Predict the structure.
Amino acid sequence: MPKQDPLFRLHLDIDERVGSIRAGHADWQCAKGCDNCCRQLAGLPHLTGPEWALLRQGLAALPGARLAEIEREVAALAGAPAGPLVCPMLEQASGACPVYLQRPVACRSYGFYVQRDKGLYCGDIEARLAGGGLAEVVWGNHDAIDRRLAAMGEARSLAEWFGEWMGEPGPAR
Ligand code: SF4
Ligand code: SF4
């Protein structure tokens, strides 16, 4: 991604916020091995075009059988009632994200940003906050992220992006 790319800039800003929060809290919960948020999505991820273009690169690099599995899972979840649901991309046995480097913005900011009137989202972090452990954290502002994402175009469901991709002619994947 070019350095002046808006999504790249947004990733950098999130990384900086995440880094500064982590630096002040060596025991921060968000770490490899904690995948509770990936297992409790409110619904299928919604992504802007640039986020999808990046995610698609990660998906295209997966083994064909794994990609086909994800495709089936996305299609099944598209018609399912509202969440919570497990992210169709999550490696359920290991709890790893197979597209970690290409993951959507929501996955990068989760746990480190708050949105006006909508809380912190993560029950583990909220519980720690309620215990008075995180009073000094300067949280990121998710409203600002949403504004920057909105400037990148309409967000569409993962199912919509996937459906379009899989319908493309030729060796698409
Ligand atoms: S946001 Fe919560 S559930 Fe997700 S990795 Fe961080 S501590 Fe774990
Ligand atoms: S894309 Fe990766 S990080 Fe995001 S919810 Fe799915 S498994 Fe978790």
Notes: Strands lie at 46-47, 113-114, 140-141, 156-157.
